[in-house]
User: Fold this.
Amino acid sequence: MILRTIFNHPIGRALIIYVGIILMLTVLVLLLKPVLIPLIIAFILFSILDPLKNRLMRSGLNAISSIIIVLMAVVAIGVVCLVIGIPLMLDQWEWLQTRLPTIATQVAKILDGLGASLINAMGMQVDTRLGERWLTDLKSQSTDAVVSSAGIMVQSVFALVFIPLITFFLLRDYRKMRNTAMSWLPNKAYELGWLIYFRVAKKLQNYIRSVFMQSAIIAMVTVTGFYLIGLDTAVLFGVLAGFLNLIPYVGPLLSMLPPMLVALGSSTPDIWLLVSIAAVVLTAQLIDNIFVIPSLIASTVDLHPMLVLLGVVVFGYFFGFIGMLVAIPVLATSKIILKGLVNGLNRGTSEDMMYAVPIKRDTQKA
Amino acid sequence: MSKRASSLWSNLFRKGNPLTEHVTELWSATPLFRDIPKREILQLVRDMPPRHFKAGEFIFNNGDAGAGAAVIINGKVEIRSAGVLLAELSDGDFFGEIALVLDVPRTADAIAVEETELIFFLRPELDEWLARSPYFAGKLGANLAYVLAQRLLQANKALVQAGHESHI
Assistant:
């Protein structure tokens, strides 16, 4: 009875349908969990490559030739990365691993010293064995990482085959698959469903393209900056900064942390190196805020900064790093769906109704 | 020719889906797709499944969200506003083209008078077509402007005539 009353009200109906959609999507995510990450990467690649395919098609090529050329370009870039970039980063990672115990000991010392001086100066009770425990945790995590590396290798090989294959089919058949899926909508919800899809797809595609462009720019700036200030792990930490930039607000701060720990971990910590690292990250953020965000990102998502920050923290708490990455797209999508449903089902009260002449349904039946 | 060879040739030169070809012909005959090659229209309608409406079923209501235009494959549709019959449409006629331009609610009702089958051409499709093939999609834009201008002229004439009649 209560449910029927809620369903009869347009906003209640919109909320019930919204909850239904969220539940369906959650079930879908749970079902696809084993292949979710490769699937997300394939969709991201599709979003980035689809405009390139269209550009080739505009020059007169057919769809299949355009897809093959675009994918070959991606594979070529991938091969260049594998041949040049990955060995370089692996070298830097190996160097970092050899330095890790020294860095950890040094940082532990600093943390312990900091704890002791806080007790002396302010009477604060800080766990003075914090650094030692952090070192033990780090060592055990390194061991776990080695143990799980075999599993990661298998997953990587699977992903290397799966991702290009799915991307190819998405580039070729996405329109057909989407139209078929939309045809399952009932007549009453058909056009509204399409409109909501259109808004979500447009926002998401713009967001993905913009954010990846932004991350690439940040990665290039930080790699160059770290290289110029003489950081041994410039490529590794620069690329990491690019990736971390995908997380709003928190990402730039996190990207400063690893190079600073390495700088702190040297036998004679160089204060100028620490300042230079901060300067490089801040310069990258400045370029991002002055040039990249206004021209690329500004209009892509329309979310309040407070909501973005809360979303990133909450998603990060529940779903880890991936949660932080997907927080913004998920929140933006939810907002568009809810707004679209409320406006679409709330006929007669929408502000757009100024264009329409309200009439009684019973009087116009043929 | 062996049976295997003949099936190969028949596959190579196979006929397309008759419904898709029929819908292509229908759209091609409308002023909306004037001077646009049929192969372009075929690409558009190929993956769009038709919609079926029972007699008396509303295709859309005044105030509903509008996502695009529709062409009638078979059946009859009435367009009504405030209870007044504006148009009676049948096979090959199209309606709802305002939604291809403006993101505003429908300004009239469309009702299937009898069992009706129609196919939509939606704004997302137009948007994607514009990215793929801007020349022909632009041509559709010009045709759309022509159709809407014609409708405006008709509406103006009707208003003037109504004004004259009220003076008499």
In short: The longest helix of chain A spans residues 63-122. Chain A is about 85% helix and 0% strand. Confidence is low (pLDDT under 50) at residues 348-366 of chain A. The two ends of chain A are 32 Å apart (CA to CA).
